[in-house]
Amino acid sequence: MTAAGDDKPDDGNNDGAGDDGQIGIATKTRAKPKKPSQFKVLMLNDDYTPMEFVVMVLKRFFHMDLEQATRVMLHVHQKGVGVCGIFPYEIAETKVNQVMEFARQNQHPLQCTLEKA
Ligand code: TYC
């Protein structure tokens, strides 16, 4: 970024002055803006939660249709873990909390967690 509206490339010396060496309003921005980081919501297998309940969770909280929810549930059942979706941190955290609370209310040990994508 440059000082006070000139259109020369940044001199990069970051001395607080513009490219012309004059003091002005600090308008420097990041060279590489950080993308909001994404998080996988993972579903874990267990021996007790009914398959139908897991399918219901995937439909309700992850907006999957019956076929997709059944495929993900069976993947988790067979492999031990599976991805329900990838979201910005706050949304991923909310989904995990919703799933855990719904499982708890229904007395199932279903576990759901986050992992950086
Ligand atoms: N393994 C469970 C059963 O046999 C089904 C299940 C699937 C449980 C996926 C949890 O995340 C899960 N009833």
Automatic annotation (TrEMBL):
UniProt-listed GO biological process terms: protein catabolic process; proteolysis
A Pfam family that the UniProt record links to this protein: ClpS
GO MF term set: peptidase activity
Region (Disordered) location: 1-31
Keywords: Hydrolase, Protease
UniProt key word Iron: no
Domain of life: Bacteria
Compositionally biased residues, Basic and acidic residues: 1-11
Domain Adaptor protein ClpS core: 34-113
Family named by the database record: Belongs to the ClpS family.
PANTHER family from the UniProt entry: ATP-DEPENDENT CLP PROTEASE ADAPTER PROTEIN CLPS, ATP-DEPENDENT CLP PROTEASE ADAPTER PROTEIN CLPS1, CHLOROPLASTIC
Subunit structure: Binds to the N-terminal domain of the chaperone ClpA.
Stated role: Involved in the modulation of the specificity of the ClpAP-mediated ATP-dependent protein degradation.
UniProt xrefs under HAMAP family: ClpS
Protein name: ATP-dependent Clp protease adapter protein ClpS
Source organism (scientific name): Novosphingobium aureum
